[in-house]
Amino acid sequence: MTDAELTERLRTNLWDFKTLQARGGPLRMLDLPGVRAFALPDHPDNLFQQQVMYEDTRSLAEALAPLEAWYREQDVPVWRVPVYPGESLAEGPLARAGYRPADTIPAMGLTLNHPPPPHLPPGLTLEHPEDLDEVLALNALCYGEENAGFFEDWRIQPLPSDQLHAVLMREGGRPLAGAVSFERGDAAGIYLVATHPAARRRGLGARVMHCLHADAFARGRCVAVLQASDMGHDLYRRLGYRELGGWPNWVRHTR
Fold first, then answer.
1. CATH value at residue 42
2. What digits encode the pLDDT tens for the residues 170-190?
3. Which of 33, 64, 224, 225 could cross-link with 10 by S-S, CB 3.0 to 4.6 Å?
4. SS3 for the chain, per residue?
C-alpha cells in the first residue's frame, strides 16, 4: 500500500475516532460541510484536543470564519489545523486567516502480515478489558497534568466491540501498559498507547503493540496507522512502521 493510501486510512480513521470521542465524553464537535472541529472547553489551553479536520482545501477555506466564531463561543483561545502531506495549498487560506505554523506530528503506517504472538515472561498477563478506565488512567499518568482531565473524563462503557478494542498488560494485578485499536474498513488506528513510568525499558509497549497487531490482523485488518508522540516514535520504527510524512499544525491564537 502506498504512503498516500495509508495517509488516507489514517485521516479517515482519526476523523471517525474523534467523532466517537465527542459522542462518548467531554469533547465537543462542530460538523460543517467537509470539516469537523473538536473542542475541549474544560481545558481550553490544551492545544492537542482543540483540533480541526477537513476533507479538502476548499471546504476548509469556506469554514474558517464559522470555525473561529465557534471556538470563541466555546471560550477556547487556541486551536490547530493539521495540514496533510501534499496539501500545501491549504496553507494560504490559513495564513490569511491568522494561523501560523507550529510543530509537526509524524504519521506512520505498517502493513500487517501474520504478526507473531507476543512472548510474555512469567508474571505478565495480557487482557482485553471491557472498558477503557485503566488504559485511560495510564495515559493520564504518562502525558502530564495538562492532558489528565481529558483522559479521566472520557469513558465509553461498554466498548463498541465491532470498532474499539483495548489491550492491557498486568503484573501482579497492576496495570503496566495498554493501548487501543480503533478499526474501520481494512485499517486499525492505534491510539492511547502508554506504559507506566516505573515499567519502561522492559519491552512492554512492544508486546502490547504486537498483541494489537495480531488481534487486528485476525479480524481482517491489513494495515495499522497512527500519529506518533515523541515518546513512542522510536518504538514504532523498531516495530516496522514507516514514515508517511509529517502533519504540520497551523495554529490560531485569539489572545
1. 3.40.630
2. 999 999 999 999 999 999 999
3. 225
4. CCHHHHHHHHHHHHHHHHHHHHHHCCCEEEEECCEEEEECCCCCCCHHHCEEEECCHHHHHHHHHHHHHHHHHCCCCEEEEECCCCCHHHHHHHHHCCCEEEEEEEEEEEECCCCCCCCCCCCEEEECCCCCHHHHHHHHHHCCHHHHHHHHHCCCCCCCCCCEEEEEEEECCEEEEEEEEEEECCEEEEEEEEECHHHCCCCHHHHHHHHHHHHHHHCCCCEEEEECCCCCHHHHHHCCCEEEEEEEEEEEECC
